[in-house]
Known about the structure:
Belongs to the CDP-alcohol phosphatidyltransferase class-I family. It is found in: Endomembrane system. The chain has 254 residues and is mostly helical. It has two domains: 6-195, Up-down Bundle (Four Helix Bundle (Hemerythrin (Met), subunit A)); 198-253. Helices cover 74% and strands 6% of the residues. The longest helix has 32 residues, at 222-253.
Amino acid sequence: xxxxxxxxxxxxxxxxxxxxxxxxxxxxxxxxxxxxxxxxxxxxxxxxxxxxxxxxxxxxxxxxxxxxxxxxxxxxxxxxxxxxxxxxxxxxxxxxxxxxxxxxxxxxxxxxxxxxxxxxxxxxxxxxxxxxxxxxxxxxxxxxxxxxxxxxxxxxxxxxxxxxxxxxxxxxxxxxxxxxxxxxxxxxxxxxxxxxxxxxxxxxxxxxxxxxxxxxxxxxxxxxxxxxxxxxxxxxxxxxxxxxxxxxxxxxxx
Length: 254
């Protein structure tokens, strides 16, 4: 059964990789859009969001069909690195960092410092995924999950407009998200909480509630809802980490 059905989650994983690659292709064509670069960057971010959707579904499919496999796990890591490491880094380079070059030995724009900053993201994502494969807690993540990090950067064109937001703010947020991936901050696993605490009825009510909320705020504003959930998730981990540090400090003082 595993051999026959393993193609289902593996196909979703390859869909994840395809969406990440498509995001890079779209971002690379932004310069040929005659002033519509932001539209291309936004579309690239949407492809990264679709990659995250495929990433969530492949694990669910593998568990539901009892079709987990070693090749599926390795394929998942490679797809995640492409979609949530390389693609966001390339998007950020095309959108902002390609302008940053410094003079070396009297030659103008010889050293592409922006390229090195962009490389920070795939480097951190690769380390994050390797650490997860070697050792991971079944109840929580160590470091910000790469799909969350990738989607956060993918939505930068919408919320940190490259034409209006200060570049230093965009770059600082980009580097911060990358560092959070390799940090020791613990993040909860939403899928574990859903499986352990939500019955099918409660899960249905939750999905229905989200649908009603989307209808109320308007379909055009759905990115704000997603970004709100992402920021809540990111800062919940940071706040929990800080609370633990304060508690440990108080214990040492006592």
